[in-house]
Amino acid sequence: MKNRFRGPTFWLVVLAFSAVALAQRPAQQQTSAPAKPTPRTPDGKPDLSGTWTGGARPTADSDKFAVQTGGEQSTMQLTKWGEDKFRWNRGPESATGPGVYRGQGVRVENDPVYNCYPLGLVRLGPPAFIISGGSGYSGVAVEIIQTPEKVMMVYEYRNSIRRIYTDGRDHPENLELTWNGHSIGKWDGDTLVVDTTGLRDESWLDTGGHEHSAELHVVERFRRLDEQTLEIQRTLTDPIALAKPFKTTVTLQLRPDLDIHEARAGGNVYDCTQFMVRKPAFGEGMNDLLGIGDHP
């Protein structure tokens, strides 16, 4: 017959395991604590303010377009115009030719960024990863400042600023084309819906060589899911470059410990001229304008 009682060693082991379980319980409860609710402005709207990071690293895969998709590689369907531009920017020799940069697979002499042009709205963000000179891929942070009349997005990269007007205005007639376009926002419940048009066509959509036309139309939906999380859905429509609308979604994380600083590249200020290639994509006059001459 088995002994109905246990020895002292047995009970010491039981007490030890019990103490460990009790010690771990607060930590388990802490990790499963619900997220804090979305902060709101005095007028009751979700407050998008804060410094945010996140996004997705772009890919140079010839059949994919993955920039700013939260890591998911989404296929972009191109028109013949868009396909021709894409193939030209990659080129038959771009996979192994002298124009390749760190396996990017494109002719960098065609890349607007390597000719001191701005990224443009789509490539700038929401925070994505971009080529940053000789340092490869680097993250981009953005600070959002929300007021009743406008939402400001201040990017660390080249100190770029974007304005989203929320005062009820429409797009102006005879809109001047700019790199970030003209953005107006309206609240749909707890979602800020932003409509952007008037975009210059010199920028690329990603580091892979996808171009767009001046007909590009961007619609974004900003939702602050909780205190720490901001979701941005984006739909690109371009009847000249895209055979069908292209949609992406990114989730950004709040970084209250992070301050936006001036972007630097080899000095105290950002100097894109050190990354310029020999043949600017938009004319040799760009070198003369910048006073740097031809690069070897």
In total, the number of domains comes to 1
Instruction: Please report which band the strand proportion falls in: under 5%, 5-15%, 15-25%, 25-35%, 35-45% or over 45%.
Output: 15-25%
Spatially, the strands of the biggest sheet line up as 1-4-5-6-7-8-9-10-11
Round the mean pLDDT to the nearest integer and report it. Answer: 74
Question: What is the 3D shape?
Answer: globular
Percent helix among the residues?
10-25%
Please report the distance between the alpha carbons of the first and last residues.
Answer: 93 Å
Main sheet specs: 9 strands, mixed, barrel
Helix/strand structural class? alpha+beta
In total, the number of strands is 11
Tally of separate helices: 4
Low-confidence stretches: 8-30, 57-74, 94-103, 129-138, 266-270, 278-296
The secondary-structure element order is HEHHEEEEEEEEEEH
The assembly state of the depicted protein chains is single chain
Radius of gyration of CA atoms, rounded to a whole number: 25 Å
